[in-house]
Automatic annotation (TrEMBL):
<protein>
    <recommendedName>
        <fullName>Citrate synthase</fullName>
    </recommendedName>
</protein>
<keyword id="KW-0808">Transferase</keyword>
<keyword id="KW-0012">Acyltransferase</keyword>
<dbReference type="InterPro" id="IPR010953">
    <property type="entry name" value="Citrate_synthase_typ-I"/>
</dbReference>
<dbReference type="InterPro" id="IPR002020">
    <property type="entry name" value="Citrate_synthase"/>
</dbReference>
<dbReference type="InterPro" id="IPR024176">
    <property type="entry name" value="Citrate_synthase_bac-typ"/>
</dbReference>
<dbReference type="Pfam" id="PF00285">
    <property type="entry name" value="Citrate_synt"/>
</dbReference>
<dbReference type="GO" id="GO:0005737">
    <property type="term" value="C:cytoplasm"/>
</dbReference>
<dbReference type="GO" id="GO:0006099">
    <property type="term" value="P:tricarboxylic acid cycle"/>
</dbReference>
<comment type="similarity">
    <text>Belongs to the citrate synthase family.</text>
</comment>
<comment type="pathway">
    <text>Carbohydrate metabolism; tricarboxylic acid cycle; isocitrate from oxaloacetate: step 1/2.</text>
</comment>
<dbReference type="GO" id="GO:0036440">
    <property type="term" value="F:citrate synthase activity"/>
</dbReference>
<dbReference type="InterPro" id="IPR036969">
    <property type="entry name" value="Citrate_synthase_sf"/>
</dbReference>
<feature type="active site">
    <location>
        <position position="308"/>
    </location>
</feature>
<dbReference type="InterPro" id="IPR016142">
    <property type="entry name" value="Citrate_synth-like_lrg_a-sub"/>
</dbReference>
<feature type="active site">
    <location>
        <position position="365"/>
    </location>
</feature>
<dbReference type="InterPro" id="IPR016143">
    <property type="entry name" value="Citrate_synth-like_sm_a-sub"/>
</dbReference>
Length: 430
């Protein structure tokens, strides 16, 4: 029993249970509720997991009230300023920043696993040209399980690590292939002399008939966006990866499930949603009308890119990305009225009582879409970009979960509100 505990008493029966208080390094302590069903016969009710810690983790810490985001203890602001995506991925996976040799070895591994099996390329032919890239990502990443399954020993740490490397390396190749399929251009093979973001841009935008020079502005901006999106502790997609992984499923199937969870507009799909929304709003005069829609509880319209389950003052990633957004637009010479519309919307919403009262601030996705657009990345690929970046976080959590000697299958309970037991009635008597 932990030295600190709480006593929970059932006021109907007078029975009590002592619940240990679990203390982390930072953040709220957590009540261990495992004893409640046995002692009192109750489950705990926490729909959408607003207050439930589903696991212990050493990877990422968020303080939503203070706008703090730490990866393995390092503030996101410092990583964004000084690190690169591959180094951040190493940090997430291994827990420490790499020394020069470790970095060289890791980045070499990631560079050299970029090719996909030739027969996987044929999978793309099965998709219609207008299939959403996220649907292709889910399918093709899941299909990697067909190539890496039989020889995979889920009890061998080395095998798990190789799977993690394959995922980080191959996802850009698959993402670019999804894009090429959607525009009817040949799939471009990766180039291992390029770094992670350069290679992605090269595979997306080069064609076999002419030379292509990767824009350093685009590669630098992507690198920063990927650092900002690399991990975000137990969000919907990461929890999905952990839940699927807890069954012992193939890692490529787990990441495919994470991609599915990310796609929704309340999560990673919001960056695409921001652009669709700005298109719909059309011009500054229409902002008040759309703000009224967002406030109307009978209207499903929400201000995309606003609000966050955890951040209630500001999203530290949004502060960094907002600045970069201006820099990219200046460096690329983009004169986009959509950007002015976005900035006006941000200004008006931040003064609006409804948004102020509910602490709804622009999140990272409000700005990332604008940057992607300025870099020439098509809107339907925005969430794919998020998925690529988040893969390092997903695999880190999956590896952490797989290494937990006390790990059990994830299996939530429910509060049943359906019909009580009743007898079957035959069709002619209904
Ligand atoms: N527009 C209008 N109203 C909103 C919005 C919004 N974007 N977000 C929240 N609200 C309202 C919500 O209706 C509720 O109102 P009331 O108290 O009157 O019922 C109140 O604000 C509090 O919301 P909440 O319950 O704290 O929100 P949540 O934690 O359930 O959901 C969210 C968080 C991000 C899903 C939600 O804010 C949302 O749907 N935002 C738009 C989509 C978006 O930008 N998602 C990207 C999230 S950041 C990237 C990532 O990590 O996934």
């Amino acid at each position: 029993m932990s030295s600190k505990n709480l006593t929970l008493t059932d006021n109907t029966t007078g029975k009590s249970v002592e619940l240990p208080l679990l203390e982390g390094t930072l953040g709220n302590s957590t009540i261990d509720v495992k004893g409640i069903p046995g002692e009192l016969g109750y489950f705990t009710h926490d729909p959408s997991f607003g207050t439930t810690a589903s696991c212990e983790s050493e990877i990422t810490f968020i303080d939503g009230d203070k706008g703090v985001l730490l990866h393995r203890g390092y503030p996101i602001e410092q990583l964004a300023e000084n690190s690169n995506y591959i180094e951040t991925a190493y940090l997430l996976i291994h827990g420490e920043l790499p020394n020069a040799e470790e970095f060289a070895t890791f980045s070499n591994i990631i560079r050299r696993h970029t090719m996909i099996n030739e027969s996987l390329k044929k999978f793309f032919d099965g998709f219609r040209h207008d299939a959403h890239p996220m649907s292709m990502m889910m399918g093709v990443v899941g299909s990697l399980a067909a190539f890496y399954h039989d020889g995979l020993n889920m009890n061998d740490e080395e095998h798990l690590m190789v799977s993690a490397h394959r995922l980080i390396s191959k996802l850009p190749t698959i993402a670019a292939a999804c894009y090429k399929h959607s525009i009817g251009e040949p799939i471009v093979y990766p180039r291992n002399d390029l770094d992670y973001c350069e290679n992605l841009l090269y595979m997306m935008f080069s064609v076999p008939c002419e030379d292509y020079v990767v824009s350093p502005i685009a590669a630098k901006a992507l690198n920063l966006l990927f650092i900002l999106h690399a991990d975000h502790e137990q969000n919907a997609s990461t929890s999905t990866v952990r839940l699927v992984g807890s069954t012992g499923a193939n890692p490529f199937a787990c990441i495919s499930a994470g991609i599915a969870a990310l796609w929704g507009p309340a999560h990673g799909g919001a960056n695409e949603g921001v652009l669709t929304m700005l298109d719909e709003i059309g011009s500054v005069e229409n902002i008040p009308k759309f703000l009224e829609k967002a406030k109307d509880k009978n209207d499903p319209f929400k201000l995309m890119g606003f609000g966050h389950r955890v951040y209630k003052n500001f999203d530290p990633r949004a502060t960094i990305i907002r600045k970069v957004c201006y820099e990219v637009l200046e460096e690329t010479g983009t004169q986009d009225p959509m950007f002015e519309l976005a900035m006006k919307l941000e200004e008006i919403a931040l003064k609006d009582e409804y948004f102020v009262e509910r602490k709804l601030y622009p999140n990272v996705d409000f700005y990332s879409g604008v940057i992607y657009k300025a870099l020439g990345i098509p809107v339907s690929m925005f969430t794919v970009m998020f998925a690529l970046a988040r893969t390092s976080g997903w695999v880190s959590h999956w590896l952490e979960m797989m290494a937990d000697p006390n790990g059990r299958i994830g299996r939530p309970r429910q509060l049943y509100k359906g019909s009580p037991k009743r007898d079957y009635v035959s069709l002619d008597e209904r």
